[in-house]
Amino acid sequence: MPEISVVTWIVGIAALVIGILAGHFGWGRRWRLPSARVHPDYLTGLDYLVTEQPDRALDVFLKLMETSADTVETHFALGSLYRRRGEVERAIRIHESLLARTGLPAEHREQALLAMAQDYLRAGLLDRAERLLLEVCRVPRLRVTALDALRGVYERQHEWRQALDTHRELARAGAAPPAAIAAHYLCELAAAAAAAGDLVEARRLLREARAQQAGFPRAALLRARVAEREADQELAVRLLHEAVRRAPVLLGEELPRLAALAGLEARDGLLSRLVGECERDPAAQRQLVFAALAAGIAAATPLAGAVASVFAREAALSAALAAGGGDLGRATRELGALLAHAERYRCAQCGFTARSFYWQCPACHAWEAFEPHAVVTLR
User: Fold this and answer.
1) What is the pTM assigned to this prediction?
2) Other CB atoms closer than 10 Å to residue 181's CB: what's the count?
3) Which residue, of 103, 125, 211, 224, has the greatest Cβ tally within 10 A?
4) How much of the chain is in helix, strand and coil states, percent to nearest 5?
5) How far is CA 99 from CA 59, 112, 126, 150, in A?
6) pLDDT tens-digit profile of 85-114?
7) Distances (CA, A) of 286 to 313, 348, 378
């Protein structure tokens, strides 16, 4: 069984118990508790759940579904619990049984279709999830929920145009995700256009992304790539500098390219500007120094003050310097070699770590969740 925290498990069981009692006694329709007793099989099913016998619990609840007409909401709660625990096959069985039920009201059938689509999405069966969600989108009361789930399907399929269109439908319904999400879709389309050699279309899409989200660093970064391909080095440097200034997390990936584009003569001036921009932000200053270490340029004169400041704050860096006899040049070279091969980023949502930066986490699909995670470990 997938790992699950004790608190989450207790909350899930509590929610299920409440759902069972609500379904059995009709809470919400009347407030007075009747004298009827809970069916003993409910308690048997709960006992199987608590004692980690989910197959037996599932058999009990499915049998109850066949004999009682008042258990629909209970089984929705049970299916949701199984899905959250990662037991998707059991959740699907619950919802298939609901859909097979004769005389199931239309609103419950629609809810079961949505729940099964969420099961398929959790299981990675994206085509099946998409088909059901497109059907549920026609139901007015469930349209927003289905559209948002459908947007997630298109993201995972990398169908960026359809994801963008769905985002716009959500905007018309007054339920759009942040505008930055649409800007990311436009940047994905622009990157694809640039890769296909259509730089005109790439520029158009990036203008649209900047109009969607002012000062969007990813759009500046991709526009710098286009300018570089068009041999407009001055524009490429300016846009790349703008991108790392707005999003210092990009320094780890982009500082070597930025220094190379600026050239040896202009490099020190550029580094001086970066130091000044990071001076009042310790986190950004740390990112600059670690990026310089990984790029092998930490010994550059303009970085001396920033390097000294970060080394003084970081116990591991101070220890590395002391171990090298106080030789800063040697310490920066050794640390740079370590950082160049380390996993330097971590998703703030799910903890996924990687050497390269991603705008969207490959594990949990959260946008802009990657943060610097350079940890220096001394042997």
Assistant:
1) 0.77
2) 20
3) 224
4) 70, 5, 25
5) 17, 7, 20, 21
6) 788 888 888 888 888 888 888 998 999 999
7) 9, 18, 18
